[in-house]
């Protein structure tokens, strides 16, 4: 398999963590690329020019990190990332993480192209409010949970989104505002899969 990615995409990082947790990293060739440079190979794999993109052993191309995660979870039965037990709760948390990731990522991209003043636009304010609401809900749901030795797609999506927020939007100081959520996050990101894929 081949995975098109870059080092700072939260979506690509989510997929890399799933690969590591599933023990599939050795089955994948990483294809580092710049999605903003209209990389020819990337565009062939995904005409949208977005990462990550997974090319399966059969040559099928899969885009969108959550869909890739679903596929990878089906390839190897060990350590299910989307367990049948508690499926609704896992997908609920994965959705919250995805929404937080989207709001943070779109804020970063908007600033890159239009400057920080774009934060004052209607869409910018909407993204900002969404981030705050999501952080509050995640704190309420995860703040008092003791992390177990298992991990699922909901945990991964949420922890990656929180990491990305700290990496790209440090002024959203969720670590200071939500110490219990920070404790939960620290327990998840201590895993080797997170350490190996840390943003830099």
UniProtKB/TrEMBL annotation:
Q: Name one GO cellular component term.
A: cytoplasm
**UniProt xrefs under Pfam families:** GST_C_2, GST_N_2
| InterPro entries hit by this protein | Glutathione-S-Trfase_C_sf, Glutathione_S-Trfase_N, GST_Omega/HSP26, Thioredoxin-like_sf
Q: What is the recorded name of this protein?
A: GST-like protein YibF
The lineage is: Bacteria, Pseudomonadati, Pseudomonadota, Gammaproteobacteria, Oceanospirillales
């Amino acid at each position: 398999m081949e995975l098109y990615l870059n080092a700072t995409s939260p979506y690509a990082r989510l997929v890399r963590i799933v690969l590591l947790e599933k023990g599939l990293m050795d089955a994948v060739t990483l294809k580092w690329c710049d999605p903003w440079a209209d990389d020819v190979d990337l565009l062939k794999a995904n005409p949208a020019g977005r990462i990550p993109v997974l090319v399966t052993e059969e040559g099928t191309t899969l885009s969108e990190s959550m869909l890739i995660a679903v596929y990878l979870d089906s390839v190897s039965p060990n350590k299910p990332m989307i367990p049948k037990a508690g499926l609704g709760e896992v997908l609920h948390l994965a959705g919250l993480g995805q929404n937080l990731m989207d709001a943070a990522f779109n804020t970063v991209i908007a600033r890159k192209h239009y400057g920080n003043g774009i934060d004052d636009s209607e869409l910018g304010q909407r993204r900002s409010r969404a981030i705050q609401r999501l952080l509050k809900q995640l704190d309420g749901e995860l703040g008092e949970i003791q992390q177990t030795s298992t991990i699922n797609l909901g945990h991964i999506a949420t922890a990656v989104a929180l990491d990305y927020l700290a990496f790209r939007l440090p002024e959203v100081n969720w670590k200071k505002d939500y110490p219990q959520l920070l404790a939960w996050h620290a327990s998840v990101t201590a895993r080797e899969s997170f350490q190996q894929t840390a943003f830099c």
